[in-house]
Write a structure and sequence with these properties.
five-stranded parallel beta sheet; globular
Length: 321
């Protein structure tokens, strides 16, 4: 082999070594970035603050962008193992709503290791659930300002058990008075009424129907009233009303919920998680709760952390059999 050939061979070898080293460096850099990103997803994101009238689905919209390159496995494909992991997460949070981001993050990581998208759903749900029980307080002071002035806003009034004969009870009437006050401030908004047949001796009466009659008697236009007359629970309220908005009222994007103060945390939680489920499972945008207005009722424990956990477990575990 001549001198020129040997020099050329050495140059080729040096260039190949340089290329190989560069590839190794880039691979290592990618792995380090992935590890750092995974750590942030598993823990730091649980620290994100919420407050005031901030639209709570911002996080979900950001989340969808991060999922584009993730395998499109079904979000809610529970098996025995994932069901147990999610149940453990819910149980831990029920026992200690102030659990740290590290404690919550380790549970979520266990789910992500089995089903990344399912783990991400529960991560986002737990962030908001933690906010509701640690930082949020129902608005009992005044009509919220700064809400949309057009028909993109719906005032959602949660029903209340009818009297035996099918008439409205005082607590429900109080909710309607608050809704009327809101509608006077936002006259272009819809009023969505949700609640099914709950009268012991009157099968034809529904909570939504009776509330609608009351609003008509107090001057609200029929075309501004939306009725959902099947719901028999708060989870039904969220599921059925979200479906009506999606199918019949696409112009509605924002919700302000009206119910009793003890009920608001459960309402916020279920409407948020139903909306997040629609976004992650079907890519559908549904209206989100941006504010609330509550009448004060002292005493009831319905809607506390135990009730919240029961509803979440029934809706996202028992019904996923």
């Amino acid at each position: 082999m001549g001198k020129k050939s040997r020099r050329l061979l050495k140059k080729i070898r040096r260039r190949r070594i340089l290329i190989e080293n560069t590839i190794v460096f880039l691979v290592l850099l990618f792995i380090m970035g992935w590890i750092i990103g995974a750590h942030r997803t598993g823990s730091e994101s649980l620290d994100r603050p919420y407050g005031g009238k901030q639209v709570v689905d911002t996080m979900a919209k950001e989340l969808l962008g991060t999922l584009q390159n993730v395998e499109k496995a079904p979000v809610f494909s529970y098996d025995e193992n994932t069901r147990k992991l999610v149940k453990n997460l819910i149980g831990d949070f029920e026992a200690n709503p102030a659990m740290t981001k590290e404690e919550m993050g380790s549970r979520i990581k266990e789910i992500k290791d089995v089903n990344y998208r399912l783990g991400t759903f529960w991560e986002q749900g737990m962030i908001y659930w933690s906010y509701l029980n640690n930082d949020y307080e129902p608005n009992i002071l005044a009509v919220p300002e700064g809400l949309p002035e057009d028909s993109s806003l719906a005032i959602v009034v949660l029903g209340y058990q009818l009297a035996g004969n099918g008439s409205l009870q005082q607590e429900c009437i109080k909710r309607l008075e608050y809704a009327l006050e809101l509608h006077d401030r936002y006259p272009n908004s819809y009023i969505a009424l949700t609640g099914g047949p709950t009268a012991a001796w009157n099968d034809s009466a529904t909570e939504a129907g009776k509330m609608g009659e009351w609003l008509l008697e107090h001057g609200v236009l029929a075309e501004q009233i939306i009725l959902e007359e099947k719901a028999l629970s708060t989870s039904d309220n969220a599921i059925y009303l979200t479906a009506i908005f999606e199918e019949q009222y696409p112009e509605i994007t924002s919700l302000v919920t009206v119910t009793s103060d003890y009920h608001q945390r459960l309402v916020h939680l279920l409407f948020y998680m139903v909306s997040l489920e629609e976004k992650m499972e079907r890519g559908v945008d549904t209206p989100v709760v941006i504010a609330d207005y509550s009448n004060v009722v002292k005493g009831p424990t319905f809607g506390n952390i135990t009730t919240q956990a029961q509803f979440v477990e029934i809706l996202w575990l028992d019904e996923k059999e």
